Amino acid sequence: MICAQVVSFAVFSEMRDAMLCEIALRDISQKRQVPRGWRFAVGGLSFARYYVFLPYVVYSVMALVLSDGGRVRDVCLNTVAVLFLLEVDNLAFLHGLAERVRMEAEENAGARQVTDDELRTMDAVKIVCVVLIPCVVLVGILGHNLANDFFVEIIAPLPSIFAVLVQRVRANGLKGACGGLGWGIVGNVVFWLWWFAVSTLVIYQAQGARGVEDEG
Predict the structure, then answer these.
(1) Do 154 and 143 contact (CB within 8 A), yes or no?
(2) How distant, in Å, are the alpha carbons of 135, 154, 180 from that of 139?
(3) How far is Cα 87 from Cα 13, in angstroms, rounded to an integer?
(4) Is the terminal CB of the chain with fewer CB neighbours within 10 Å at N or C?
(5) What pLDDT does 91 receive?
(6) Dist CA 2 CA 54 (whole Å)
(7) What are phi and psi of 98, to 5 degrees?
(8) What is the pLDDT, as a whole number, of residue 127?
(9) Integer Cα distance of 122 and 111 in angstroms
């Protein structure tokens, strides 16, 4: 549970980065025209982060416990491995870019006009992550044997769906709730399409490796 709590902090950090990115794009759009391609790129990146990447982070926490066991050493080392995935983009930004480019990005790309209402929305999303992710991890691990093999995959996207729902409700009220549920359904479909694609690729590679061993 402690490791799940640490992962929830890291997941919220990714969600906060996505929210700040949207706010920065809004600020830039007020000063000059932003090409539609960039708006779609930023929106698509946020969508993929919410509904594909972060649900798989939550899923991996449960899957690693179910596959490797619940020993303290294994859980702690697997948690470090999961958190490393969330730090790859930060490390690439800090150390992969030229220093001048990085300094210009830090100076010009940050969100400067975060309102009090947006800060309260971030606090609400933080509560969703801190409370819901450990609960999802616990329920997923305990309910895996009681339900079926897909139970973990079914509940993994719930924190992201609720986080987006909270943002939509706070921004647009009841209309935002309907929009948030719609995006949650679309995001869940995309999550499952990605899951089936990855599973198919793994099965294909396993069959190819087995074929090479048989020929050998």
Answers:
(1) no
(2) 6, 11, 24
(3) 10
(4) C
(5) 85
(6) 18
(7) -65, 150
(8) 94
(9) 14
Helix (H), strand (E), coil (C) string for 126-151: HHHHHHHHHHHHHHHHHHCCCCCCCH
- Give me 100's structure tokens: 């001048």
Mean pLDDT per 10-residue run, the chain (216 residues)?
Answer: 89 90 81 81 88 90 85 86 85 84 75 80 93 91 72 88 89 79 86 85 75 60
The answer to whether 82 touches 58, Cβ cutoff 8 Å, is no
Q: Is the pTM of this model over 0.85?
A: no
